[in-house]
Here is the input.
Amino acid sequence: QFDLELAKIQKIYPGGTLAVEGFDLRVEKGEFISFVGPSGCGKTTTLRMIAGLESITSGDLLIRGRNFTNIPAEQRPTATIFQNYAIFPHMTVYQNLAFGLEVRGLPASEIKSRVDAIIDTLELGDVASAREAALSGGQKQRVALARGLVTKPEILLLDEPLGALDANLRKSIQEELKILQRDLGITFVFVTHAQSEALAMGDRVVVMNAGRVEQISDPFELYTRP
Ligand code: ADP
Ligand code: ADP
Here is the structure.
């Protein structure tokens, strides 16, 4: 059984733009899949359909064999990390991390242990009481990651999560993501327009162009293709 399965998944926006033409993809549990391609090729739309943030025009979305095509975002075992972090500025880091669990109605003791654990994993202890304005770019990105992971998703969806970071920081967060993949055993779907990043991060790379999949291959094949 696959962790994530897209079956002829297609998106036509109101107004008629065919953003994603419909393709098949099967992702194993724990796999790191990169989506790469030029701006406007349909990467974000695909990710948002997986997250439930965008309706699916036709086709099916399965997670661990269960059909989630029409299931609302908040009932999906996914978490999404956006480039702009989407941190609540009036809350501390700790409160940002607890918030998503509070709205899910988890008991206070469970919230505390989960938030403490993720703060530890992502080394955010020094800034737990800080607000967004006081954080560096790398810290903001780790808070955004922590906020997704604290909900214990089965699939972590990342939309250009490193785009706002400088080269050194990008490298270190790339490494952290690969460590998280190894340690947590969850599935990663990673959208980027940067081919080098897609190759560096992905166990497999989905190359998109104009709403279609051009190829799906492992990074080594892409490197060595004449
Ligand atoms: P990418 O993430 O690869 O840059 P997108 O998925 O954002 O591509 O966009 C794919 C296509 O769908 C583009 O032609 C874009 O203009 C269009 N599109 C994206 N979002 C919307 C929307 N909310 N309404 C209408 N068209 C959209
Ligand atoms: P990205 O390249 O990351 O997809 P964009 O700058 O293309 O981001 O899109 C930003 C926002 O505008 C998204 O919410 C997207 O859905 C929306 N959008 C993009 N293209 C269109 C479009 N042609 N019509 C309406 N909304 C769009």
Notes: The mean pLDDT is 93. Residues 39, 44 surround adenosine-5'-diphosphate (ligand 2) (CB under 6 Å).
